[in-house]
Design goal:
Layout lengths: L1 E2 L5 H10 L3 E4 H7 L6 H10 L12 H8 L3 H29 L5 E4 L16 E4 L2 H12 L3 H9 L4 H6 L3 E4 L7 H15 L8
Parallel strand pairs: 1-4, 2-3, 4-5
Helix pairs in contact: 1-9, 3-5, 6-7
Length: about 200
């Protein structure tokens, strides 16, 4: 599953989990791999300096974000550190879920699926889709960021067209929240229909 910032991925993930899916949350894993004392945090500080640390020694995400969203080379440097660590952590979660139940549906929630060229690794790609102007409104309202900052973050990700180009399932999240469970129900039926019994259902 993928989608742009503020496109409703977390809500859709929660609904898929209610159906029994195991969710591999790459945003959460990306936080875990740079926790205080981690090798990931050490590498980030080595690359960007102690200015990306908070007073308590944890990663100062706004400070790091201000650097990488304004500088494509810095963003690639950060991704080169974080992505391998996250992918290894995701692999472990996936393997543990399958060891417990070989028929389980594992949903990898990957914001940068398109950017990292991984769409072909999965049986089904679900995209949460919303108009970019609505993304900006949500980011401003949710995170208290400026409109300019919200647009910069959207432009730093794959385009809406690029994401839709890899989609097997599209869930439009622009409507009322109460409409989403029905859309996820339909998506779940589609996912089960595409999965290979006893095989790799990702």
């Amino acid at each position: 599953m993928t989608g742009g910032i503020a496109s409703g991925k977390s809500t859709v993930s929660a609904l898929l989990a209610e159906h029994g899916a195991v969710i591999v949350d790459y945003d959460q894993l990306s936080r875990n791999v740079v926790a205080v004392g981690s090798e990931g945090l050490r590498q980030v500080v080595e690359a960007f300096g102690e200015k990306v640390l908070s007073e308590d020694g944890s990663l100062n995400r706004p400070a790091l974000g201000a650097i990488v969203f304004a500088d494509p080379a810095a963003r690639r440097r950060l991704e080169g550190i974080i992505h391998p660590l996250v992918e290894e952590a995701a692999r472990r979660v996936d393997e543990e879920a399958r060891a417990a139940d070989e028929q389980v549906v594992v949903v990898h929630d990957i914001p940068l699926l398109v950017e990292t060229g991984r769409a072909d690794e999965f049986d089904t790609v679900l995209v949460t889709d919303v108009d970019p102007a609505e993304q900006v409104r949500r980011v401003v309202e949710r995170d208290g960021r400026s409109g300019a900052d919200a647009w910069a973050r959207i432009r730093a990700q794959a385009s809406r067209r690029e994401r839709l180009g890899v989609a097997d399932i599209v869930i439009d999240t622009s409507g009322p929240l109460e409409d989403l469970p029905h859309a996820v129900d339909r998506a779940w039926t589609h996912i089960l229909g595409r999965g290979r019994p006893g095989g790799d259902q990702r």
